[in-house]
Amino acid sequence: MTTTAADSAPVPGPALPDEDGAPAGAAPAATAPAGPAPAGSAPEPADENAWLEDIYGEEQLAWVTEQNSRTEDLLEDAAYASLESSILEVLDSTDRIAMVGKRGDWYYNFWKDGNNPKGLWRRTSWESYCTDAPEWDVLLDVDALAAAEGEEWVFHGATFLRPAAGEPYRRALLALSPDGGDANRYREFDVDSRTFVDPAAGGFDLPTAKGNVSWLDADTLLVSSTADGLPKTASSYARTGVTLKRGGTLAGSPRIFDVPEQHMMAVVAHDSTPGFERTFAVDYIDFFNRTNLVLRDGEWVAIDVPTDVNVSAHRQWLLFRPQQDWSVDGATYPAGSLLAADFEDYLAGARSLSVLFTPDARTSLQSWSWTRNFLLLNLLQDVSSEIRVLDPSLPGASGDGCAWASTPLDACPPLHDVTAYAVDDEDDAAADGGAGDDFWLVATGFTTPSTLLRGTLERGEPGTAGVVSRHAAVKSSPSFFSDADYEVQQHFAVSEDGTRVPYFQVAAHNLPLDGQNPTQLSGYGGFEVSRTPAYSGTVGRAWLERRTAGLPGDGGAAPHSRGGVYVVANIRGGGEYGPSWHRAALKENRHKAYQDFAAVARDLISRGVTSPERLGCVGGSNGGLLVGNMLTRYPELFGAVSCGVPLLDMRRYTRLSAGHSWIAEYGDPDDPAQWEFIRTFSPYHLLKDGVEYPETFIWTATSDDRVGPVQARKMAARMLAMGIPNVWFHEALEGGHAGASDNRQAAALQARSQHFLWKALAGGTP
């Protein structure tokens, strides 16, 4: 099991079991205006755009079509067409690394390219994968399936049934979304026959809904779902878990687990690891608090920890990562540490905890992954990767603070992101010819194309210290731009309260510090999500290598052409320095994230990298809320804002799509006391007449069932009605929260955002 923070959008974190039972997402979007606030709530400001909350209404979609046409007329010129084509070439490149996951003897991959826009689910052998041209066994052609069934299917993964000992993996549940949103239809698939198992013959086929599905045995599923009339929480997640027998229905299945309506979500899942078979349930109270339970003798037994301590199970071990300082039997363990205990001993009442990692002011734990005999820790030190290998069979060295023997993995260059995770921890150990202690390394940097390496961990010879690691490159991505022409620097801005805020700057060597460089500033700052170095052919081509027609030089010098500067800010609210960095910008302290981002903007300006008329910012989802606050709170710092799939109406966000589930992050706007601080970062309510706002592009997707398109629509409509110039809106019909369900849609989305920023910042404004 690999445990990590949420991805780049507000969705629940991972449940306690491994990937056989991980939760699958958030709640479906409402298709009609959300209801009024409960009695006793804070007053709702007048909202002239509430009519746009009917997502699929005819009049509302007509408004969307009109705005789309207006925006496309502005942006889709010859330069846009060339840019879109260049981005699509990157996304469709057949030289990209085909990332794989091992099941049994096969290595599985999902692949999209120009000939297969919806993708191929396929597999190959290890020997073939290592060649330059692997022979792929195609299991499912999603484009052919969509054409045959008349449904725009988007593939969202496969969950395999563990076979009997010695047998190959054969049956899987495939998650297919009808529009790219979070709601999936789960269908049983036979990889040998390459066909779906006919429901008439007992094959599982679950209705499209949000939820979680896990194999209990060959004829039984554990399901959390809102389909077939099963109850929802106030967040519209599944409120109950059921056992679904082959041939049965969700509505008629026994309910085995329920959570209160005001809690966020129920999850049930089975860990089928041989010798450690266990069934778990998770009561997600809110985004950061949960109760973990294990089924014993027909009864749910809670794992006794505070609700803000993340728990994961692996074989005989329980691991704990507290979100706040945790005191146990007289000892206090700091937030962000990692602790271990024997599973059975802990359930029996013992509280002997082994310390595996303790954070410091510069270093945080990002994720961990078990091989057969070792534990890999992925750390960040000032937002650069560090990896340690722990051996549970040996005690730690005196004074190193780790209860288990710890060895650094020498694979992490500065200012790079390197992640280690197990290939297949349930295979035999390497000494027996298996891959149990093999691991993947994925290494990337802003100017370093991604590389996939594979390694093996072994204990050193008696008398030697630590774990021996052997790893070598397997695949490398090509360069999509002249990356050697650019350098990566890390700087630190100082926020209003004195906090040092790191940021990465990617720019040409010998960058002229004359304030005239078109600069794109990106950030997120929420849900403990870390922004780390990553190679992007899209950013390289669409921003770094794009050239101005000639901007005035410093001191009246002749105009000269230059490329763009790309900046990533590691502001509070994220996870770059662990839970404390995240919690520093929660709820009433949300403004600190925005102060951090503004401090980075000011630092770029004061250093001469750029100037307000050349500085733009971009963000999506929670990052859309971030740049919405730059637009309304710090308009003087920016020349352009690209705001994607955003939260913007923070008075009604809890009643739009999956918004109720994020109260733990932002606060409850129905509570009058909390609305007083939430209103200070609600961009929809911060717009004022007489303010010179940056040029603004707001983009979203109709099928986004996580944040939804409503808030983006209303913000654009209000700005247009106020007569604010240079406000543009675009809404894709498909793609869910990602805004795109295939590479062509993704290329169009990215090209619009990049082209808008370039036109606004590089001399020729819209």
Automatic annotation (TrEMBL):
One of its GO terms (cellular component) is cytosol. It comes from Pseudarthrobacter enclensis. This is Prolyl oligopeptidase. GO terms for molecular function: oligopeptidase activity; serine-type endopeptidase activity. Residues 561-762 form the Peptidase S9 prolyl oligopeptidase catalytic domain. One of its GO terms (biological process) is proteolysis. Gene3D superfamilies: alpha/beta hydrolase, Prolyl oligopeptidase, N-terminal domain. Residues 46-232 form the Peptidase S9A N-terminal domain.
